[in-house]
Design brief:
The chain is mainly alpha-helical and 130 residues long. It has five helices and four strands. The strands form two sheets. Strands 1-2 form a two-stranded parallel sheet. The protein has a two-stranded parallel ribbon with strand order 3-4. It is globular and about 50 Å long.
Length: 130
């Protein structure tokens, strides 16, 4: 029930913001995977949206490095695995390789038994799978 309520609240916020918007252009590549009022809600309410030059530049950079892949790879990072776990579960069926960076990598190393220096992010380790 919590997810339905959160979705309703996101859409209410998106409708309010969309009243003041003629065009939706997103340059927030690092946030583009999030289901938020601003990233998903506004273009949904407006019925359109597009990527800006900065997002295009990020995508082009990945294509230049990776070339045309039959199945994509995913690069994820962040501090909290709990924020990304649903994304990871979803994309694992669709990718060949997963690269984990940032603070999130420490948690995966720790879960595999790696010895790591003391780190605030790792203490205490919270279970990420229900």
């Amino acid at each position: 029930m919590k997810n339905a309520r959160e979705e309703l609240e996101r859409m209410i916020m998106a409708r309010k913001i969309a009243l003041y918007v003629d065009y939706f252009v997103s340059n927030a590549f690092g946030m583009s995977h999030r289901n938020s009022a601003t990233m998903v809600g506004i273009p949904k309410v407006m019925g359109h949206g597009c990527c800006g030059y900065l997002m295009k530049r990020e995508i082009v950079a990945f294509v230049d490095v990776l070339g045309d892949l039959l199945r994509p790879i995913a690069i994820v990072g962040g501090a909290k695995v709990s924020d990304e776990i649903l994304l990871l579960e979803h994309i694992l069926q669709q990718i060949d390789s997963l690269f984990i960076g940032g603070a999130m990598a420490y948690i995966f190393f720790k879960a595999q038994g790696s010895r790591l220096p003391n780190c605030q992010l790792l203490s205490p380790i919270q279970p990420i799978f229900p």
